[in-house]
């Protein structure tokens, strides 16, 4: 992909543009939240900088790209306005569609509603205000017959009486990603689905649009690469990186949205209406999630609800020369070759920013963000925790749900798989967590889920973990070979020393779903164990 250095807007940059600094000096010992925390980088020459943050819960802009001739995709405009666009052959294509708001009951592939749930269970519907931007940089018209959603921009809502720290505005983004070809059957394959709710403040900006390129919204557009060549690539406007709390922006309208904190005492919900179903396994940043799926005449009404969770960020900077031999070895024994720009270590990550001053690692500037899921990220965090005194840099609130990526679902037990239905949802507030659904230990009949976070919040208060597992009854029958679906569960949390940790656990079951919860356990790197038994 062609990339402009200052305009690069991969998930890493989106992560770094969605947080702002605040120093926590809590007067009273207890949980605190720093939703304005700021990324304090970049690193200096000779430093390795690492940010553990859930960038997988952040969506990317809408696009619909003709990939029929991959070698030419960045030489000319690859974007398509619809499936009837005359410049697009669409023998091969890929897309990311941020879903529009449903204007009426007949609309499909859209957000049908959102709102809050108070402590008494009363639902407070949100009111749709507008899309932001009103027109996306690469907005396109979908094709329901192909099951291709229309792609636009996220939605701004207000929820009467449900005030966050900046008002009652909330930004909702639901996106579907996929690929296909007009000669294939099916024409479209959906590869991911995600949805998030973010409380926001709204700012009027004074962007300098004397150069129109300065006010182009995020998406695919033409720019000049470092070699002076005009190419197409995905990027964001120059001013998008100026404020690290930015959630969304519109250069043409002079508006920007900025992250703020959720109000306490409320759950939140979001509903979507689709003519296809997300499939397989899902991960979420929710407490006590509830998932409802209603199928009627080929239309799926999906309802996601739950309470936002507090998720720790861990940020560290250190001279290469000061790192422990173990941590150095972990990096050096990977495919680390700093003569090439795509520097990858044995640890998984979303992106690495580099600056070179020779091949000596003492003279290399590195900023990286490990993936939030997977054993590699867990191991990397555990090795950095002593350097940050096992203390989080900040704790942010989050409400989001997504399907697993290909990276996370590779090798997944067949009992968790289904190409046509959602089979389960696992949620946690941990900084790092196992990739995919829980791992099934067939010998001992145990579902294992490993998590890792700093032990302390910024004010040195012990951070308390949460874990929810929601799965279809068929999954339990498949894993354990049960004759019927009625089960009971033993739930425990085992710390890194092999000791049982104190935790609050609950279990319930209805005709469709098994629901389990472990909460109030402490970190650094425990494993949640669940053993189901036939009643």
In brief, what are we looking at here?
The chain is mainly β.
Distance between the termini: 54 Å
What is the approximate shape? Answer: globular
Query: Sheet bearing the most strands, described?
Result: 14 strands, mixed
Number of strands: 31
| Broad structural category | mainly beta
What does this structure look like?
The longest helix is centred in the last third of the chain and has 10 residues. The protein is mainly β and 535 residues long. The N terminus is likely disordered. Strands 2, 3, 6, 7, 8, 9, 12, 13, 15, 22, 23, 27, 29 and 30 form a 14-stranded mixed beta sheet that branches. It contains 5 helices and 31 strands. Among the domains are: 203 residues, no CATH class; 129 residues, Immunoglobulin-like (Sandwich).
Features:
globular, 535 residues, 5-stranded mixed sheet, 5 helices, 31 strands, mainly beta, 14-stranded mixed sheet, disordered N terminus
